[in-house]
């Protein structure tokens, strides 16, 4: 059911009640009514709007939010437009709008209700390193940016392995993540490994699941030994934890 239909029903019921009350009651004094309106001020501005008018206003605000975010490269704009695209793809407009509102107001990180966990790929990827997750998916890092992956505490020089068979698509440096290796894992899956020290692969190289691609370093501005790990499907960031092989299942 369209959640906005409740507004129309509510307005209709309210109008019927007001009409019935008006037949049996005397109208209030004009001066008293004016004083009440003055006290309400802007808080009562929408009391007599119809459901259609409210939907029009909300649609306009929604459009402006997406419009002004569409060209932005900052994490907030990317998050807003990402939620909008997922809403259009999944048809879950109400939940996606709510998630976008949280993004705009800074109340949450990444919300992607149109991307449920792919059960066929659960427990299929190796953890690139073992360690404690110190920053979770969708949280904000020390700079205020929304994490599109997880940060895993480690020690300097710890080997970082490929989560799955794939091809190296980029070996680069990111101003926030330091040295980065990006891998295409096939079938729309990809990964980003950041804050590396040594890099053991080159662009275009094929790698096997569990193969060392580098080591944990201090190349990110924070200068602490941790690994940034992103997992993406069709370039949409996902929480990688449900997709990782449990420690007992890794050889």
Please report the number of helical segments. 5
CATH architecture of the largest domain, by name, is Distorted Sandwich
Q: Quote the CATH topology of the largest domain.
A: Glucose Permease (Domain IIA)
**Helicity range of the residues?**
25-40%
- What summary fits the major beta sheet? 10 strands, antiparallel
Strand content: 15-25%
CATH homologous group name of the largest domain: Glucose Permease (Domain IIA)
Overall number of structural domains: 2
CATH class of the largest domain: Mainly Beta
What report would you give on this structure?
Mean pLDDT is 73; it is low at 1-12, 88-96 and 98-114. This protein has two domains: 5-105, no CATH class; 120-249, Distorted Sandwich (Glucose Permease (Domain IIA)). 31% of the residues lie in helices and 23% in strands. With 251 residues, it is α+β, with helices and mostly antiparallel strands. Helix 3 (51-69) crosses helix 4 and helix 4 runs antiparallel to helix 5 (93-105). Strands 1, 2, 3, 4, 5, 6, 7, 8, 9 and 10 form a ten-stranded antiparallel sheet that branches. The protein is globular, with a radius of gyration of 26 Å.
Question: What are the salient characteristics of this protein?
Answer:
single chain; alpha+beta; Glucose Permease (Domain IIA); 251 residues; 10 strands; 31% helix
What's this model, at a glance?
The chain has 251 residues and is of the alpha+beta class. The protein is 31% helix and 23% strand. The chain has helices at residues 5-24, 30-40, 51-69, 75-90, 93-105, and strands at residues 133-135, 150-153, 159-161, 166-174, 178-186, 189-199, 206-207, 212-216, 226-233, 236-238.
């Amino acid at each position: 059911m369209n959640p906005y239909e409740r507004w129309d029903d509510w307005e209709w019921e309210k109008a019927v009640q007001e009409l019935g009350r008006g037949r049996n009651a005397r109208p209030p004094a004009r001066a008293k009514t004016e004083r009440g309106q003055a006290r309400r001020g802007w808080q009562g501005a929408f009391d007599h709007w119809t459901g259609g008018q409210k939907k029009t206003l909300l649609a306009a605000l929604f459009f402006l939010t997406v419009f002004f975010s569409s060209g932005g490269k900052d994490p907030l704009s990317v998050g807003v437009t990402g939620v909008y695209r997922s809403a259009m793809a999944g048809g879950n407009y109400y939940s996606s709008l709510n998630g976008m509102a949280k993004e705009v107001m800074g109340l949450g990180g990444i919300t992607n209700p149109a991307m449920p966990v792919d059960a066929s790929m659960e427990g299929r990827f190796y953890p690139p390193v073992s360690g404690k997750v110190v920053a979770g998916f969708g949280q904000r890092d020390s700079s205020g940016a929304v994490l599109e992956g997880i940060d895993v505490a480690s020690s300097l020089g710890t080997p970082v392995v490929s989560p799955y068979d794939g091809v190296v698509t980029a070996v680069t440096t990111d101003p926030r993540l330091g040295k980065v290796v990006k891998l295409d894992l096939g079938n729309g899956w990809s990964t980003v490994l950041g804050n590396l020290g040594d890099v053991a692969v080159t662009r275009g190289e094929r790698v096997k699941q569990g193969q060392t691609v580098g080591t944990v370093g201090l190349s990110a501005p924070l200068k602490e030994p941790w690994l940034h790990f992103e997992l993406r499907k069709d370039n949409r960031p996902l929480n990688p934890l449900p997709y990782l092989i449990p420690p007992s299942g890794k050889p």
